[in-house]
Amino acid sequence: MNEDQSSRTRIAKDFHWEMGHRLPFHEGGCRNIHGHSYRLQVVAEGVLDEHGMVIDYFDLKEIVEPLVATLDHAFLCDANDTAMLNFFAQNPLKHVVVPFLTTAENLAGWFAAEIAVLLQPYRNLRSLTIRVCETERTYAERTVQFH
Ligand SMILES: [Zn+2]
What we know:
The structure is a single chain. By secondary structure, the protein is of the alpha/beta class. It is 27% helix and 37% strand. It has a 6-stranded mixed beta sheet with strand order 4-3-1-2-5-6. A hairpin with a 2-residue loop joins strand 5 (125-135) and strand 6.
């Protein structure tokens, strides 16, 4: 295919959810149980398909929303956080255990890996960028290149 950078287009869609977490190693406030109104921005870059699209926004929503729903109103629990795991063993509240510290950076990496797999059928895509915002003033970003 005759293709250069200038033939690529980027589209983005935003998602929102509420989630609790804590950073056990943190010496400030973040070691406490707290939550954020998270914003996820999914940016897909590619060449246009026969319909003039990078990816249908509807398809992107169908792919991303189940992941967001898994996290919404849950506590995101680092698998090494035994204090919280003990709590959830006694109190069956919504929580998701992940094998990483629950920073926005790691969360961006998790979303990038999960979504990249689901985007594999879209052969016209060239990269995926994930932005996770814990606050209005901060974000962590991860980019995955395809092909
Ligand atoms: Zn936090």
